[in-house]
Amino acid sequence: MEKEIAKAATLVEAFPYIRSFRDKIVVVKYGGSTQPEEGGSVTVMADLVFMETVGMRPVVVHGGGKEISRQLEASGIESKWLHGLRVTDKETMQVVEDTLFGVINRRIVDGIEMLDGMARGMSAKDAGVMHVRQHLVDVEENGVQVDIGYVGDVERIDPEPIRRACEEGVIPVVAPIGMGPEGESYNVNADTAAGEIARALQAEKLVFLTDVNGICRDPSDPTSRISTLHIHDVNGLVQQGVASGGMIPKLDACVRAVRGGVHKTHIVDGGVPHALLLEIFTREGIGTEIVQ
Asked: pLDDT tens, 65-85?
């Protein structure tokens, strides 16, 4: 009986959140570091289906760097990097596109549909969602720039294809492939893509599922997690080295999203079972929320 009472108490605690988030868009960036190699995390898929069932409008934007590296290796193509960005020639871009949309996107859609949810996979290029320009890397202080191929910076987002899917009761699953000025495909950082899509949709929330439990003041001590972080404190954490590496583009995306009208952003450990529900529908949450 105690377990049943605890379950009922959990539902009661969640009810105000369910009611307040009804018809609100929540963009979830499903990071490659939290995706199992085969299929998606069952609890992540279940959380997404639950959110849609109770009236929320989840939107998934996914990455897939590890899987891309595996597919490139299998194709005999060497992965090359410059300043943390993958050098992407035409041959590499074809593998990137095939992997993101043909493999990872399909896995996530299949995972949602296996739980009786409805999902629609889309490339941000093919759906006309994300228009980009080529990203050039500054390699010297005197302004020298290097062409690293088909890597894009977001210029414009058309959110309507995503919004229409949400209105139809379908969960959009978006691969971060942008359209260049000549209609060519560009690889876009998935964190950046998720943030720009959330801004364009004026989402209620933007949630990053990653492999750490939020932002910790001492990265080696998980108990030092910062529950709520204000955007004007983000630069200080980066300068102090508290946030580094792959966390920086996530924080940049959070700050831009909040300044652009997204109510709250979150960085959550996607490896925790039902991480989305715990962060959104409980008072304490399990990650770091970044707010205005």
From this structure: 889 999 999 999 988 888 778
- Count how many residues are written for the chain: 292
Strand partners, 187: 151, 177
Place of tokens 């590296």: 69
Q: Which domain range does residue 52 map to?
A: 22-211
Pairwise CA distance, residues 199 & 257, whole Å: 5
- Please give the distance of CA 239 from its chain centroid, rounded to a whole number: 24
Which residue is associated with the tokens 């290097």?
A: 146
Q: Is 289 exposed, middle or buried (0-12, 13-18, 19+ CB in 10 A)?
A: buried
DSSP classification of residue 271:
T
Q: CA distances (Å), 27 to each of 95, 134, 183, 260, in order?
A: 26, 25, 26, 14
140 in a domain, yes or no? yes
Average pLDDT over residues 240-263: 86
CA–CA separation, 72 and 78 (whole Å): 7
Residue 173: how many other CB atoms lie within 10 Å: 28
What is the per-residue pLDDT across 17-29, written as a single tens digit (0 to 9) for each?
A: 788 888 999 999 9
How many Å separate Cα 196 from the centre of its chain? 10
pTM of the model: 0.90
Within a domain: 237:
no
Total count of domains within the chain: 1
Q: Is the pLDDT of residue 227 over 70?
A: yes
Domain for residue 171, yes or no?
Answer: yes
SS3 for 176-203, per residue? CEEECCCCCEEECCHHHHHHHHHHHHCC
Contact (Cβ atoms closer than 8 angstroms) between residue 151 and residue 88: yes
Cα separation, 107 vs 113, whole angstroms? 10
Q: Residue 95, Cα to own-chain centre: how many angstroms? A: 21
Residue 142's CATH number: 3.40.1160.10
Q: Distance between CA atoms of 244 and 256, rounded to whole angstroms? A: 18
Name the DSSP letter for residue 63: -
